[in-house]
Amino acid sequence: DNQNKVQLHWTVDGDSIHYAAEVETTGWVGLGFNSNAGMSNADMTVGWRAASGSALVTDRLGVINSQPTRDAQQDLINPAVNQYNVASPTPTPTPTPAVAAVTTVLQFTKRIDTCDASDHAITGGTTRVLYAYNDATPSGGEDSFTHHYIRGAKSVLLTGRAPAPAPMGADWLS
Q: Residue 43 in contact with residue 32, Cβ under 8 Å?
């Protein structure tokens, strides 16, 4: 983002990608993938650290002007949410209320192609990476997060593989 409050890190490992989204917020974080910058049918992951210290992370499907719905097939591998004070980047179970600058890190691994119709396969070429967050920490269960405070999208070459060029026929010069 323009204010450097959102950073995405990823590593391709065979047929999977490990993601870590670092966001300067005390609330929930959402990360999504789509062929366009829109929320509709985006493959989303939303997570936060509850006041109790437990992490809530779910695989979701984007819906226009509504909360993303829970994906029937949860394809996240080792999902986690950690928080740390920006001045002292040591993960803590819960943020220190007196410190305003807290970073929430949403981490998970997902197969490049999960074979789930609700997920976005990461193929060659760029993928639209979507992010959203809200500073309010949800107080209920996995559907208790509120509308995003900030959102954005960026085209990213996640796999480092450009799509194969289309073959040119014998008449391509004509």
A: yes
Tokens of 173: 């010069």
Q: Which residue has the tokens 């829970």?
A: 70
What's the Cα-to-Cα distance from 124 to each of 26, 37, 80, 118, 158, rounded to whole Å? 34, 17, 27, 19, 8
Q: Encoding tokens for residue 100?
A: 């305003």
Handedness of CA 130, 40, 36, 163 (dihedral sign): positive
Confidence (pTM) = 0.81
List CB contacts of 71: < 8 A, sequence separation 6 or more: 58, 59, 60, 61, 116, 118, 119
The letter for the amino acid at 57 is V
Query: Residue 139 and residue 145: Cα distance in Å, rounded?
Result: 8
* Pairwise CA distance, residues 115 & 103, whole Å: 33
Helices and strands counted in the chain (H then E): 0, 11
Q: Which residues contact 159 (CB under 8 A, 6 or more apart)?
A: 12, 17, 112, 122, 123, 124
Q: What is the pLDDT of residues 48-92, one digit of tens each?
A: 888 888 899 999 988 887 888 899 999 999 999 999 887 655 555
